[in-house]
Design a protein that fits this description.
It contains 14 helices and four strands. By secondary structure, the protein is mostly helical. Strands 1-3-2-4 form a four-stranded mixed β-sheet, sandwiched between helices. The longest helix is centred in the first third of the chain and has 35 residues, at 69-103. The two termini are 32 Å apart. Residues 1-5 have low confidence and may be disordered.
Length: 358
């Protein structure tokens, strides 16, 4: 039989104590350098595992090596320094494990691109482009502050920061030309996208199309307590980031046109959308404008939604609404599902952005 290569699982967090040299290891090196068999120490356990030597053991080592008090002093100071470093390393390990627990949820976003760290925590720091967990948390707090300013829902600051970071990394790989608002609007209003409204595969190809207008469209899998979508601007070019929250194609279409509404209506403004089509009194002006834009494009206005939520009919069907408002059945079902109107009988298509991460 041929040799099989053993696969070593990368640890989540490396214990820094394992990198410290014990006094036993140091003494073992001294024995070997002087040609002395460490077995003469008469220890029951391996010398290399010894983190502390007794005074009698130190004296015995000095006699075996024909050394005086200078070696004894060196060994005592060495193990004292080891004890100090060991306490610091244990505290650092405990803290690192706690930080890893806060950060491990972002691992699916690394796309197997960050694998050079000593442990998974190092890989996560490389993903964020920082040297410490504290830098991640500080950056996450600033992103969460912007989110809370624009939304009325809870957010996980670390997950949000990671989700946005993934979008930035993907944006950096794209060769985006100058932003052309007029061409983008023409494509939207030309409605050629309606031909692929039912196709998740074609929806996932839209980034190539939007690049023609200088728009970077990035699909990033949803992670808990983050957002539906976001718009940010880099050197005058919009980055539109969409999540697959709910794994629902119609929801993704609405998110896309909601974000494109922000692009066309709110130039150079950073937007993080925690909720979509929220009709509550706290909905801010820009969100109302983006909602109106998406509703006009996708549903020919807001009357379809109003009819669904008015419950003015005993029975409603996606086919009836689609014909009445001249929209695809998939989009008519979108509002019926939102209203929890016989949701299991509505047209629904799944979409999964994780395909980009395999």
């Amino acid at each position: 039989m041929g040799d099989t290569q053993q696969i070593i699982e990368k640890p989540n967090v490396v214990n820094p104590r394992t990198a410290l040299c014990t006094v036993g290891e140091e003494l073992g090196d001294i024995f070997r350098a002087n040609g002395v068999d460490e077995a003469k120490m008469g220890l029951r356990t391996s010398l290399t595992k010894k983190e502390k030597l007794t005074d009698n053991q130190i004296k015995r080592a000095c006699r075996l090596l024909n050394q005086g008090e200078s070696l004894a002093t060196y060994l005592r100071n060495f193990q004292k320094e080891y004890e100090r470093k060991s306490k610091l390393a244990s505290a650092a390990y405990k803290k690192a494990k706690k930080n890893y627990a806060r950060l491990k949820g972002v691992l699916p976003l690394l796309k197997n691109e960050f694998e050079d760290g000593l442990d998974r925590l190092d890989d996560i720091l490389d993903f964020f482009g920082v040297d410490s967990e504290e830098e991640v948390f500080a950056g996450a707090d600033s992103a969460a502050a912007l989110f809370r300013k624009q939304n009325n829902v809870r957010v996980d600051p670390v997950n949000l920061k990671a989700w946005l970071r993934r979008g930035e990394l993907d944006f950096q790989k794209m060769n985006i030309g100058e932003y052309d608002a007029q061409a983008l609007r023409k494509w939207i209003e030309g409605r050629e996208w309606q031909r692929i409204i039912d196709s998740a595969d074609d929806f996932l190809k839209l980034p190539e199309k939007l690049m023609e207008f200088g728009v970077a469209l990035v699909f990033v899998p949803f992670i808990p307590r983050t957002v539906y979508g976001a718009v940010r601007w880099f050197d005058g070019k919009p980055l539109v980031q969409v999540s697959d929250r709910d794994k629902d194609l119609a929801t993704c279409w609405f998110t896309l046109f909601h974000e494109l509404g922000h692009v066309l209506l709110h130039h150079n403004e950073e937007i993080l959308d925690g909720e979509l089509n929220d009709k509550g009194g706290n909905t801010r002006r820009k969100e109302k404008e983006a909602n109106k834009f998406a509703n006009e494009i996708l549903f020919n206005g807001d009357n379809l939604r109003k009819e669904v939520f008015s419950r003015s009919h005993d029975t409603l069907s996606a086919s009836y609404l689609a014909a009445k408002y001249d929209v695809p059945r998939l989009l008519a079902s979108y509002w019926l599902i939102k209203a929890q109107y016989q949701p299991y009988f509505q047209v629904r298509k799944q979409v999964d952005f994780a395909l980009f991460y395999q």
